[in-house]
C-alpha cells in the first residue's frame, strides 16, 4: 500500500526532531547550570 512509505517518512522525521530537540535541551541545560555556577 501507498501509506507505508509515508508512515516511514513521518516516523523518521519525528525521530530526527526528537533527537535534535534533546540535543538542544542538553545544550540549554548545560548553559543554565554554567550561569548558576559562575
Number of strands: 0
Cα-based radius of gyration, to the nearest Å: 17 Å
Low-confidence stretches: none
If you average the pLDDT, what whole number results? 90
Helix coverage percent: over 70%
Topology diagram in text:
Blueprint: H1 3-37
Folded structure, characterized:
The chain has 38 residues and is mainly alpha-helical. It has one helix and no strands. It has one helix spanning 3-37. It is rod-shaped. It starts with a helix and ends with a helix.
Gist of the model:
Helices cover 92% and strands 0% of the residues. By secondary structure, the protein is mainly alpha-helical. The relative contact order is 0.09.
Main attributes of the structure:
38 residues; mainly alpha; 1 helix
Amino acid at each position: 500500500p501507498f501509506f507505508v512509505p509515508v508512515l516511514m517518512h513521518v516516523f523518521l522525521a519525528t525521530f530526527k526532531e526528537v533527537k535534535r530537540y534533546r540535543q538542544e535541551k542538553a545544550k540549554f541545560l548545560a548553559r543554565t547550570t554554567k550561569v548558576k555556577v559562575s
